[in-house]
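Fold this sequence, please.
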Amino acid sequence: MVAASSAIETDERDLIDAVLRRDRKATAEFVSRYSDKVYSYVRYRLIPRGDMVDDLVQEVFLAGLGGLRDFRRDAGLQDWLLGIARNKVGDYYRSRLREPLALDEASEGSQPELVIESRADELIDRERLQEKTALVLRALPEIYGLLLLWRYWEKKSAQEMATETGKSIKAIERTLSRARAEFRRRWNDV
């Protein structure tokens, strides 16, 4: 097992060294090797904002390539890139939540109502539950969806969200309460 681990470390080390020498093939291999994991991570954390996934994945790889000289190699390259992805997703949440009026005047009624057939097996089938959750999140005002994802997916407390967005904790809590209520209402309507 140690030999296999050592071979992986040597392979990563060789890839990093080649990328740092600006070898185009190595750079393409770097992106190709880790893009599926990074893309999946970002996609699931940005539901329902699928239109932003490609941009954030690109930002992750640009930051990764730009910071590769500082990579300490104490963790695997994939874990390091996923850490960058987590930070980029957090930056996205913070930037969207800092926008003026976003917490105070979330627009309602501008999102189309989603109608899907509700079936008993949806409650059992995890994939269908995920699809339903994504549909409901897409139907919510964006600020509500972002706050709910940040709170429940990223496990951020209201205090952390307030600190990172510059909003008061009361404003975050009020908006989270409205977001939960709207999510429940739309969940029951779907």
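The chain has two domains: 2-95, 120-189. Helices lie at 2-20, 24-45, 53-66, 77-98, 126-139, 142-153, 158-165, 169-189.
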